[in-house]
TrEMBL record:
Coiled coil: none annotated. Gene3D superfamilies: 3.30.420.40. It holds the Pfam family FGGY_N. Residues 258-448 form the Carbohydrate kinase FGGY C-terminal domain. The keyword Ribosomal protein does not apply. It comes from the Bacteria. This is Rhamnulokinase. Belongs to the FGGY kinase family.
Length: 495
């Protein structure tokens, strides 16, 4: 048996998965899982990259010991937007910044004075969100961070892993599109934007396309993990790109919306080329780069972060509660007690989530959720409504109606959210795999090794290998009535 390994780093946890492909089916099993939290120091937020690299090595070692056959390849994917600087010897110069750092807001305000929103969107096709890499780098440069004097390259997270695993330096395309520094037409770093922000073009390395075979592990790493023949492949290294690759599209779903539902919910449609026009600008949509020339026209919705942060607070205060308990509590709570805009930037930073939701409601003279079940239920209902606003915006841009919503990622384990999404959108929800990202990662390795030849073969394999669950819409009128209340509350109204 031949094995392939996926290292999937999310913004709240990471995992190493092993994929076993027998020619017709693929099986995926979890080898190692570990938490990944932002680290706050002097009011700056960072990622603990050395710890993540350590966990990766642990996972590789465990995989090596547990495999029955040979482990051939490894692919890395991570959350988008963040990266780190390396020096001339390839060393990590400084802890990578976390996109939730409030400093990004200063960067956002600064860049908007230098480049107009429209200019930036027309060049990059990426939504204007303060979390984007461009704002992080622009403010560091403006504030004369010393790191620019020593850096050889700025590498996005997966590229950073690649460099420490193989010594190869490059910028994988799908993750590079999340920076908002890539020109959408040229699929390369936009020199005008870089110049306007005084960012040196030489810091940004050559674009590598997903499916590229990077090479063997550095001898020192191979020795550490005891896998001398492991080959690293640049997959679709942006986790969302990998997740959407493994959406189990059925033949009759000609027009579908996907939700890659993890810490963030990425809500969008797969299209053949970027759509950069008045509407996508007004709706603040992104055209993120995918595999096989596809583009994900999408919006970021705050997602399970709201639940994760609420839970973290409860757990830290001594309560023993898991996500399943939370869903059970929400099920018991009254429907439509209140609602809020999950995408209000006030929910971006970690901490005090329950209080922030309560004060959002209080400020608008809405009923304030008090009980735990009420808080959770209003988070889930508000998310479902928000998914519906994106559906309507996508339908408006694309000029056609969607006939299915595919949910993949951790959110598929939240049956209430899946059901609410069907109710709010009025169309069936098809829930795929909770490990869609890792699966997409492995599928790209199989493609690179010549085992699969194109996107349709990949999607067929997903369909054959993993079960789906279908949620039909219920109580549509009641949901529609409450949706009207919801859109009157959110700041970006839709027509
Ligand atoms: C999903 C994701 C999103 C990106 C957000 C922050 O995990 O990668 O695509 O916008 O995280 O990086």
């Amino acid at each position: 048996m031949i094995h392939h390994l996926a290292a999937d780093f999310g913004a709240s946890s990471g995992r190493i998965l092993r994929g076993d492909f027998d020619g017709t089916n693929i099986r995926v099993s979890e080898i190692h899982r570990f938490p990944n939290y932002p680290v706050r120091m002097r009011n700056r937020l960072y990622w603990d990259f050395p710890r993540l690299f350590y966990e990766l090595q642990c996972g590789l070692r465990i995989a090596g010991n547990s495999a029955v056959g040979s482990i051939q390849t490894l692919g890395i994917d991570t959350w988008g937007l963040d990266g780190g600087f390396i020096g001339s010897a390839g060393e990590l110069l400084v802890a990578p910044r976390n996109y939730r750092d409030p400093i990004n807001k200063d960067g956002f305000d600064y860049v908007r004075k230098v480049l107009s929103d429209e200019y930036l969107f027309r060049k990059t096709g990426i939504q204007l969100l303060q979390i984007n890499t461009i704002y992080q780098l622009a403010i560091m440069k403006k504030e004369h961070s010393y790191v620019f004097d020593f850096a050889q390259a700025f590498l996005m997270m997966p590229d950073l892993f690649h460099s420490f695993l193989t010594g190869i330096i490059g910028s994988e395309y799908t993750i590079a599109t999340t920076t908002q520094l890539l020109n959408a037409d040229q699929q390369n770093w936009d020199v005008d934007i870089l110049k306007a922000l005084h960012l040196n073009r030489d810091l940004f390395t050559d674009i590598i396309h997903p499916g590229t075979r990077l090479g063997k592990l550095l001898p020192s790493v191979a020795k550490e993990v005891n896998l001398p023949d492991l080959e690293v492949i640049a997959v679709a290294t942006h986790d969302t790109a990998s997740a959407v690759l493994s959406v189990p599209v059925l033949e009759n779903s000609s027009a579908f919306m996907f939700i890659s539902c993890g810490t963030w919910s990425l809500v969008g449609a797969e299209i053949p080329q970027p759509i950069i026009n008045e509407k996508t600008l007004a709706y603040n949509m992104s055209n993120e780069g995918g595999v096989f020339g596809t583009i994900r026209l999408l919006k970021n919705v705050m997602g399970l972060w709201l639940l994760q942060e609420t839970r973290r607070e409860w757990v830290e205060s001594g309560l023993d509660i898991n996500f399943k308990d939370m869903v059970d509590m929400a099920e018991q709570a009254s429907p439509f007690l209140t609602m809020f805009d999950p995408d209000d930037p006030c929910f971006l930073e970690p901490g005090h989530m329950m209080k922030r939701i309560q004060s959002w409601c209080l400020q608008r003279k809405l009923p304030v959720p008090q009980e735990k079940g009420e808080i959770i239920r209003c988070i889930l209902e508000s998310l479902a409504f928000k998914f519906c606003t994106v559906l309507k915006q996508l339908e408006d841009v694309l000029g056609n109606k969607m006939n299915a919503v595919y949910i993949v990622g951790g959110g598929v384990n939240n049956s209430l959210l899946c059901q609410f999404t069907a109710n709010a959108t009025g169309i069936p929800v098809i829930a795929g795999s909770s490990e869609a990202t890792g699966i997409g990662n492995i599928l790209m390795q199989l493609y690179a090794k010549g085992e699969l030849k194109d996107l349709s073969e990949i999607r067929l394999l997903v369909q054959q290998s993993f079960p789906i669950q279908v949620y039909e819409p219920q109580n549509i009128e009641l949901w529609e009535e409450n949706y009207q209340k919801f859109i009157s509350l959110i700041s970006e109204r839709i027509s």
